[in-house]
Design the sequence.
């Protein structure tokens, strides 16, 4: 059996893996919305698509942002799926870090971890600033 | 680095004069690693449940003379039970599927399901056997889910006990709670602090007290062609995955929330989101006056909105 590897197999696999995270964030967001608003827009003559784009979608901003950041972090951070799909030309950071740790014992990987932590702290504080982390946690 | 034979913990133990502990390449290390990995998830998942318990209930219990410990055992704990069960099953499945920590801290001697599957594929190149094992563990984790779903939909457990003695008691438990919370925070955050210290460390081994910070390991990271290539492909993959997943998720979430379709309940159960069930639970559990109060509040809110409109 041949398992394809490289950029696109990795992308598709991580897409499958991280989709539920985005769906969860959006479902939580959508549960908090008032469906009658969309009905009102339809009543006023908007088509279904128009009502969704102009009424519901703007209210989904927190969920989109939070879900997007979750997916991004998962895609950057995933190891257990990526490890099977990397090859010599395309590797991801966690896989590369893992193979580095096995061969060398120095703080290069710690430096990488610090960079990734800085990235995720920045992203999370962006969510906090724009959406409010408390609100998001409560929605979960 | 922290737990290793020449790691920081053993350096400290040696400084105090205690014999070194074997904390890596065995089960102890794996357990410490996996607990460290899952603890934040556990706390976060439980946070939502506990936040949904009205503080007023605890205040009422305390007002009726229950001590802090009694309030927790008879009010907070029963109310958070459904969330606790969910969180435990989530954490159990998470621990079952742990891979990186047993692989790194087990040192090839302590194996867990995922590491064995990995070994079958990478070392033995026995993909069919690995697939069979993976399917087996998928079944097992589905079994856990099913058990959780059954237990939480038919969960006994009564309403919070209203029996409270009218004796005034001191509340020494706030201090204990604070100590436990502090210990958990230290357990979760301390390794992060040490990773940062290690990244700016002069040599390849971390010693205390830390010497002058250096950026040489960051230079070594960016000097490595493999790391830079991996960084770019990671960013590229995430750059494709993030917008596509988010866009696909919008209609999916809409369908899940607004429409009915065959298998919707199963899908909700798998995606670990069961609002209806949770709500029904709270309906079962909250004593009637509280429910009445909540309903009144909701009705008031609706009236208020009608006024604004």
Sequence:
């Amino acid at each position: 059996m041949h398992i394809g590897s490289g950029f696109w197999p990795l992308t598709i696999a991580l897409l499958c893996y991280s989709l539920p995270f985005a769906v969860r964030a959006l479902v939580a967001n959508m549960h908090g919305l008032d469906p009658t608003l969309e009905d009102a827009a339809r009543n006023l003559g908007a088509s279904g698509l128009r009502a969704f784009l102009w009424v519901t979608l703007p209210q989904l901003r927190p969920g989109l942002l939070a879900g997007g950041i979750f997916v991004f972090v998962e895609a950057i951070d995933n190891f257990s799926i990526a490890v099977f799909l990397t090859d010599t030309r395309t590797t991801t950071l966690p896989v590369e870090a893992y193979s580095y740790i096995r061969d060398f014992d120095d703080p290069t990987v710690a430096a990488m971890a610090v960079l990734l932590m800085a990235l995720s702290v920045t992203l999370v504080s962006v969510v906090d600033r724009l959406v409010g982390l408390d609100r998001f946690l409560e929605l979960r | 680095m922290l737990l290793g034979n020449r790691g920081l913990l053993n350096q400290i133990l040696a400084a105090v004069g205690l014999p070194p502990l074997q904390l890596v390449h065995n089960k102890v290390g794996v357990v410490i690693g996996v607990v460290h990995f899952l603890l934040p998830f556990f706390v976060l998942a439980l946070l939502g449940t506990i936040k949904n318990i009205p503080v007023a209930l605890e205040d009422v219990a305390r007002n009726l003379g229950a001590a802090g410990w009694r309030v927790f055992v008879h009010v907070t704990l029963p109310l958070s039970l459904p969330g606790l069960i969910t969180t435990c099953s989530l954490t159990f499945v998470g621990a079952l599927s742990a891979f990186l920590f047993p692989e790194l801290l087990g040192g090839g001697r302590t194996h867990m399901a995922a590491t064995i599957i990995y070994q079958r594929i990478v070392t033995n190149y026995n993909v069919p056997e690995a697939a069979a094992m993976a399917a087996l563990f998928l079944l097992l984790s589905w079994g856990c889910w099913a058990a959780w779903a059954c237990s939480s939909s038919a969960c006994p457990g009564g309403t919070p006990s209203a029996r409270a003695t009218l004796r005034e008691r001191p509340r020494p438990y706030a201090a204990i709670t604070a100590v436990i919370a502090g210990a958990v925070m230290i357990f979760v955050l301390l390794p992060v602090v040490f990773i940062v210290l290690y990244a700016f460390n002069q040599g390849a081994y971390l010693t205390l007290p830390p010497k002058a910070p250096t950026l040489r390991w960051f230079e070594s990271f960016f000097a490595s062609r493999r790391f830079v290539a991996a960084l770019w492909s990671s960013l590229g993959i995430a750059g494709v995955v993030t917008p596509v997943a988010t866009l696909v998720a919008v209609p999916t979430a809409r369908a899940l929330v607004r429409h009915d379709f065959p298998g919707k309940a199963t899908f909700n159960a798998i995606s670990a989101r069961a609002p209806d069930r949770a709500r029904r639970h709270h309906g079962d559990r909250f004593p009637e006056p509280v429910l009445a109060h909540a309903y009144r509040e909701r009705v008031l809110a609706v009236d208020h909105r009608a006024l604004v409109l």
Remarks:
- Chain A has a mean pLDDT of 81.
- The radius of gyration of chain A is 20 Å.
- Residues 7-31 of chain A form the longest helix (25 residues).
